Amino acid sequence: MNREGRGATTPHSIALSGPETFTGNRALDLEEGLIFEIGRIEVTGVDIAEPAPFRDRLGTQARTAPLDLPGLSEPEAMRHYVRLSRMNYGIDSGLFPLGSCTMKHNPRLNEKMARLPGFADIHPLQPQSTVKGALGLMAELSRYLLELTGMQAVALTPKAGAHGELCGMMAIKAAHAARGDGDARHVVLVPESAHGTNPATAALIGYQVRAIPARADGTVDPEAVKAALGPEVAALMLTNPNTCGLFERDVVAIAEAVHAAGAYFYSDGANFNAILGKVRIADLGVDAMHINLHKTFSTPHGGGGPGAGPVVLSDALAPFAPVPALVATADGLVLVEDEGADGAEQALGRMSAFHGQMGMFVRALAWMLSHGADGMRQASEDAVLSANYIRACLMDLMSAPFAERPAMHEALFDDTWLAGTGLTTLDVAKALIDEGYHPMTVYFPLVVHGAMLIEPTESESKASLDLFIAALRDLAMAAKAGDKERFLGAPYYAPRRRLDETRAARAPVLRWVKPAQVADAAE
Amino acid sequence: MTSVRYTKDHEYVRVEGDVAVVGISDYAQQQLGDVVFVELPEIGKVVTKGGEAAVVESVKAASEVYAPLSGEVVEVNSELEGAPGLVNEAPEGKGWFMKLKLSNPAELDELLNEHAYKDFLDTLA
User: Fold this and answer.
1) How far is B83 from chain A (nearest CA, A)?
2) Which residue numbers delimit the Aminotransferase class V domain (chain A) (predicted)?
3) Which of residues 92-111 of B touch A (CB under 8 A)?
4) Is the ipTM of this complex over 0.85?
């Protein structure tokens, strides 16, 4: 049932040089079933002694049908997961141009540091006196985050970007409540160019979302913000640089208008990696911003590891930071666990059970320390340079909206260049898989028709960028030359052919079901 | 006489007696691509013109459907729950979203007629 996507036929124009194999394997490209398809209950990787005779008390609850657990021997289990991993594509296998989520190289030094026993083998419930080094690392990370942003306080506990947004917005809600205008202010302004999580976050904590349309140049107009502000507005959430890869140049005027109306300014910091070391967030008038350690500071994510979304806060919001909070006392660093306690009198509560993602803190600080101030600044510059290089090299064949301005860390294209070819953005993305690349983000941001959003990050060399650009140029020329089959049938060479996204969404198969008929027929 | 009116957000309204049938236009379904899920309001919900009334989700995006007119939801197309593809097949037919009992029929005059909507679509091309 999971093999449906695998095409048995090859198109005429792109014939493979050999015959279809008898096994379904293609040399090193090995076919692999689901674990429930290959496992058998009677097989095990460990030798467990039979239990001594006992009398169970299950009565009528005793199971009568077999358990159907998939047993595998150790070599079978090893091969299963290694074979699956070979169908995967990650930043360690090639350029990963996903514009909606920074995928940069995670230096192995980070991993070495995170595996130091003093960081890796500690437990959140250990007495604080036995983890002074870990608390010291958290304090040092906080100092770096505050230095880089110019902000007053940081909450380390949020577990990822959207969780950080939630924390920042809850701080804003707590601040309004403390000020006495919490009930009156029930609206949050969110520009159309914001991340989708922004309106979702505002709605989750009971705010009504009011959209601000983008200007023709893709940025937010301060006049549009002023017109939407009022005594009912609690905050504005702005993504900067925005999802079109543009820096919001009027951000200071926007922040001033927001503050003049008695509201707070939340900045979505998911794209902080484009301005790290170049812009002090506090200078922009920001009251709260989350920082994706897993994007800006290279810690692994996207199936490769947990995220971490610390939130930096302005003076006005600092008192409402959640617990546990790190506080420096005469006796050294202390994690204040209870809201209302000394150092957390007005804390908004708790965002997570413990102090946050320790492993990510270690990796992020390792990245900061190994890069230094000059290295971090250069990382931003290289990320922006790489994106602009890609855009400049593809402009003659593809179409880029807002091209009159330099991009930030993302190169954005629309589908105007595909007009008349009979092909869509999706077809281009699928053809890119055949060329050995993970596709870019497609159909986002929504404000751009058939968007293709490419983020190379600072990880790629010029040689690597040139190969990627050459692949896209060849595809663009093939599309314009009418070589439709290359696109419409793509991917031809992936472990699975093009999947039926519509059927997958309309009638999702969320659970493996034993093919009863097949089993019966075999008996 | 039945006449169809449109909003610039690509909802349509077809007045039948004292109720108005609401859905999304053919252009909207084309832009969305294959619709995979529709979230309809509860019967009895009071909507105001321009306010959120439903959500339509396609393989490309999730979008809000705004109430083209103010009124009370008197019926919803529950067939869409099991067959969201009706929105693609017949947006102005079997793919309708909800029926509204209008609270301010005068609002109808503020919407685009078929000609004006077509002209509006031409400006988007």
Assistant:
1) 8
2) 185-302
3) none
4) no
